[in-house]
Amino acid sequence: SLALQPVITPELMQGHAHLKCTYSPPGSGLRYAVLWSRLASPGRQEQIQQDTTLQAFSYLEMSSKHLRLGDTVFCTVTAFARDSPEQQSLPEQSKGFYAGIKFLPESLQIAEDGKEYVLTIVSTVPITCSGHNDSCKITLQLSTEDLDSQLLGPPNIVLSACQVDLMPTPCSEGSCAAAALTVTAVTDFAQDGNRVSHISAEPVGQRDVLWRAHTPKDVKVTVQDLPTGNCYSFTDPHIITFDGWRYDNYKIGTFLLCQSTSRAFEVHVRQWDCGGHRSATACNCGVAAQ
């Protein structure tokens, strides 16, 4: 009974992306059988490669014809006594390693509160350069889809960028490249319940078929519907503020109706005479919003 504790980490070797399975050798005089496998379907693994080695590690190249980006990879290690091969340890399997691009977090719960929520895109494997100046990066085209698109109106969410570049960095803590963007829920002034959207990413302009064929898993974004404050200016004009106070303003001219103290937002109204000679009455005839 040995505690081999195999672990998979990404590594760039001679310009090629590899996965490295390392394990804790309990002593000398041992050989190791390392079986690489991928998750083919829920609950079923498919063998990719098998090695027998004296080393305390084994490599799997990402360009293997049996492996593609988006796979979850495992390594299973069994130790043998070199002099007595029939003496072998129980096989120990590593945790699954997702090889590809992924969003963090994998799902978002946000609200119609005007706040920006950070979404990070990570490549868990090294990005290789093919010798061209512009190819040592992965460009991702981002898009959003509202799952309740039959409802007319604005989109549920907006992104701070339509494209992001993943630039290679030394692999650390499961990240070999990362980019961040923000997601904001659209305040739609409608009581339409909680709504769901997806954010998707697609590599563009890639020469490397390994990346070109890779589509990361979408992010599910649930937008919590919040009640929206309203203010009104109507008829000759009566004004109701956000907190329910009522005023009258019969004057003629251009007025500042409301202004935010925290962001660049204000509304102007223009009022003209609409009461004739008998009464001093003004009516809204124009509005400008920034």
TrEMBL record:
For this UniProt record, the keywords arranged alphabetically read as follows: Disulfide bond, Signal
Signal peptide per UniProt: none
Q: Does the keyword Signal apply?
A: yes
Q: List the Pfam families.
A: Ig_VWDE (PF25776)
GO cellular component, as recorded? cell surface; extracellular region
Q: Where is the VWFD domain?
A: 229-290
For molecular function, the Gene Ontology terms on record are:
signaling receptor binding
Return the protein name.
Answer: VWDE protein
Instruction: Report the source organism.
Output: Penelope pileata
What is this organism's lineage?
Eukaryota, Metazoa, Chordata, Craniata, Vertebrata
